[in-house]
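A reminder from the course coordinator: this example appears on the midterm review sheet, so study it carefully.

Given structure:
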């Protein structure tokens, strides 16, 4: 009996996993490890540091719809490769910066690559290569992303402690080249039909060709999707999720230290958050093959709200650990389920465009959150007011997702 060949989609997924793992170098969860060293080295305020994340997020938000449209038409190979090169260049520049404007330029470029060119096209590629195991494939992508969040903050912390923060940035840049740029350049392709392969590697039905075989489901044009209340509910929910996510993430380590935790314990909470996100993503991916993606996303938003309530009370390692576990589980669900819900509601033909629009709105929230938290701290010497506002916003986002019912077709 001949051996069954490995479906090429798994190689594409491996390349996506590599670049999204390395992309953790540009994430807020890594930058939070650098906040105190940069403050000590240059005397920058929290608001000044937060502004770099906002500038990069805004540029990524502007690029996301265009990159999404290009992904639908031409594939994600070159956006991913270019994004990885830009991120690596930015990380090397951070290792040599001497002034605040250089920090803004370099980290802004890193966030542009992250939000516009790497995170944005990755889920639509998974949706184009998988149908039967789409939930599991998306979960594996989320797991790889979370693994970067687990491993890279402590790696940066060790490099900063034993060598220098400049060394840490340079090592992260090399990681992006090796794990991200090269695999994407050589392995990523637009869709299985371009290689004459059937979707999922499964033989098409009798009378159908691999080039025309596709999954059943909706095929709503992106312009029609923009006219549905459901899509606007999801956009609003993505915005508030973005505000709360980065508003907490950038300032988490300083906040926990202000609450009385040691620096190592605070960094451990960041890593534990990503570990919970990665492990839970696998569970969410299996669950979405059996249960409604919309109901599961409501649950993920509700868990995020509960985690923020825990954070407001977190003044011991135990409470910080509980926060990280709940928050990570919620984030694993949100990352895994959002693109799947769009594919379930609107189909995969225009998923890159729709996901790009959603990422643009979410990234605008990414830009606002750190500034709100940083300004609140600079004015009051406390993050509690900002984090309480993020809790209220997340509760509103939970309601918005609950209102996002399947759109009517036709």
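Designed residues:
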């Amino acid at each position: 009996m001949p051996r069954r060949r490995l479906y090429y989609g798994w190689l594409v997924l491996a390349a996506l996993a590599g670049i999204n793992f390395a992309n953790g170098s540009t994430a807020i969860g890594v930058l939070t490890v650098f906040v105190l060293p940069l403050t000590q080295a240059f005397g920058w305020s929290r608001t000044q540091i937060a502004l770099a994340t906002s500038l990069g997020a805004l540029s990524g938000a502007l690029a996301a719809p265009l990159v999404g449209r290009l992904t639908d038409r031409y594939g994600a190979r070159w956006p991913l490769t270019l994004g990885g090169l830009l991120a690596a260049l930015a990380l090397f520049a951070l290792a040599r910066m001497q002034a605040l404007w250089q920090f803004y330029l370099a980290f802004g470029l890193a966030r542009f690559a992250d939000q516009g060119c790497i995170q944005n096209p990755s889920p639509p590629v998974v949706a184009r290569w998988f149908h039967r195991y789409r939930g599991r494939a998306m979960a594996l992508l989320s797991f790889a992303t979370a693994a970067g969040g687990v491993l890279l903050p402590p790696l940066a912390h060790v490099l900063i402690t034993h060598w220098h923060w400049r060394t840490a940035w340079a090592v992260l840049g090399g990681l992006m080249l090796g794990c991200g740029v090269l695999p994407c350049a050589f392995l990523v392709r637009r869709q299985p039909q371009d290689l004459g392969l059937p979707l999922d590697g499964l033989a098409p039905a009798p009378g159908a060709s691999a080039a025309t075989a596709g999954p059943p489901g909706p095929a709503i044009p992106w312009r029609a999707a923009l006219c549905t209340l459901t899509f606007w509910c999801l956009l609003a929910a993505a915005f508030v999720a973005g505000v709360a996510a980065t508003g907490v993430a950038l300032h988490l380590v300083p906040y926990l230290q202000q609450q009385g935790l040691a620096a190592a314990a605070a960094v451990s909470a960041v890593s534990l958050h990503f570990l919970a996100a990665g492990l839970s993503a696998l569970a969410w991916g299996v669950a979405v093959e059996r249960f409604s993606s919309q109901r599961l996303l409501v649950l993920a938003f509700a868990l995020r709200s509960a985690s923020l309530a825990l954070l407001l009370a977190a003044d011991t390692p135990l409470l910080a650990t509980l926060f990280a576990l709940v928050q990570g589980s919620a984030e694993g669900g949100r990352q895994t389920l959002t693109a799947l819900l769009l594919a379930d509601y609107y189909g995969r033909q225009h998923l890159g465009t729709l996901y790009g629009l959603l990422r643009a709105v979410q990234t605008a929230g990414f830009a606002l959150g750190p500034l709100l938290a940083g300004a609140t701290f600079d004015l009051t010497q406390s993050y509690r007011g900002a984090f309480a506002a993020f809790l209220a916003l997340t509760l509103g986002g939970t309601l918005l997702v609950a209102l996002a019912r399947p759109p009517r077709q036709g």
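DSSP finds 16 helices and no strands in the chain. The two ends are 47 Å apart (CA to CA).
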